[in-house]
Design goal:
single chain; mainly alpha
Length: 357
């Protein structure tokens, strides 16, 4: 009955509703972006005019989609689920449990997985089968070739951000450091380039701030500056502040006019990029979500129609806006399009019930 009330939009967004909205938003954004993944903005426009809802995968689209149906989710939702289940069953952030859930996900399907994640989780599986310690962090190294800098960490950080918000309650002192530590450890499960974890932290911090207090449009510039300066500090501490390809450089482009709704969406995607490279995808997704922080439909559709890594970008946008507007802020026809979206909302509520005080 409690879930039924959330689904029907009764009352203002509670924390439970916002956690459920975050999780449902991940699955909806993922599924809506899936059929047009890796298409350009121009290609999407040529084929669809404008994507306005769920569309069917088509011959010639990203190869792995063959066999998927309209509304199906991808590895982004799969790996988010693995992290959430690890937190619930491990009663907190346990690296052994996180490793085991990644291996279970690997055994279910690797459709859509990046090579970096497949390689790292396969090594976990081999250690587990040999009776060795399953968790072994990947050595961290800045890659001049931008290897290990894909979206594999960014797309699965939402459960960690939610967990930290629920653990903190009203006591937020020191939480930024604890959030960074958790995200860095999560990133080191699979990715060697610290920029993958820094980008994931930027997304997680956005979610943490949004969940900590309902955000209206007047607050987004202050919120974005908080994220920007935190990322700069981390890059300084990691010794990569002087490098050319770092996250803060792209975030800096968006600090002023780009956050306004009236700024052309085509310019946002052109200037920030929308590829699966985290220095493009993370700034683009954060900015797009904040531009539409109170409008789930507008934000997700803007991410999908921009082209690029559309499923990952739209899933991050869906997570952030869903965390702000709650389950009742998601269009009902989207929420009910697939049972998988309500299942993700229920997983969010299970995480909420496990850690809420």
């Amino acid at each position: 009955m409690f879930f039924k009330g959330l689904e029907e939009g009764i009352g203002a967004p509670s924390m439970a509703s916002r956690v459920a909205g975050c999780f449902a938003g991940i699955a909806i954004g993922d599924a809506m972006g899936m059929p047009v993944e890796m298409m350009t903005r121009q290609e999407i426009h040529h084929r669809f005019g404008r994507v306005r809802g769920f569309v069917k995968p088509f011959a010639g689209s990203h190869p792995y989609k063959l066999g998927l149906m309209s509304g199906d989710t991808t590895d982004d939702t799969q790996l988010t689920t693995a992290v959430a289940q690890a937190l619930i069953w491990g009663r907190g952030f346990d690296l052994t449990q996180l490793s085991k859930e990644h291996v279970k996900a690997l055994e279910e399907s690797i459709v859509g997985w990046g090579d970096t994640t497949v390689r790292a989780v396969s090594a976990m599986k081999e250690r587990w089968q040999k009776g060795q310690r399953i968790y072994k962090p990947v050595p961290q190294c800045f890659s001049l070739e931008n290897k290990d800098c894909g979206n594999g960490v960014v797309v699965k950080v939402a459960p960690v951000a939610v967990w930290r918000v629920l653990k903190a309650g009203s006591h937020v002192d020191g939480e930024d450091g604890r959030l960074l530590q958790s995200i860095s450890q999560l990133g080191a499960l699979t990715h060697s380039d610290p920029r993958a974890s820094i980008a994931a932290y930027a997304v997680a911090k956005t979610l943490f701030l949004v969940l900590s207090e309902y955000v209206d449009f007047s607050f987004i510039h202050l919120l974005f500056d908080d994220i920007f300066y935190s990322v700069q500090t981390i890059e300084n501490n990691c010794g990569i502040a002087g490098e050319k390809n770092i996250l803060s450089t792209n975030l800096a482009k968006a600090r002023y006019k780009m956050l306004d709704k009236g700024y052309p969406s085509s310019e946002v995607s052109r200037r920030l990029g929308t590829a699966s490279f985290v220095l493009e995808s993370a700034p683009f997704s954060i900015v797009t979500a904040l531009r539409h922080i109170d409008d789930f439909r507008a934000g997700v559709l803007e991410a999908v129609n921009a082209g690029g890594d559309t499923d990952s970008n739209a899933s991050v946008v869906g997570a952030i806006i869903g965390a702000n507007v709650g389950l009742e802020g998601i269009p009902p026809e989207w929420l009910r399009f697939s049972p998988a979206y309500l299942e993700m909302a229920r997983l969010g509520l299970e995480l909420y019930a496990t850690f809420s005080k």
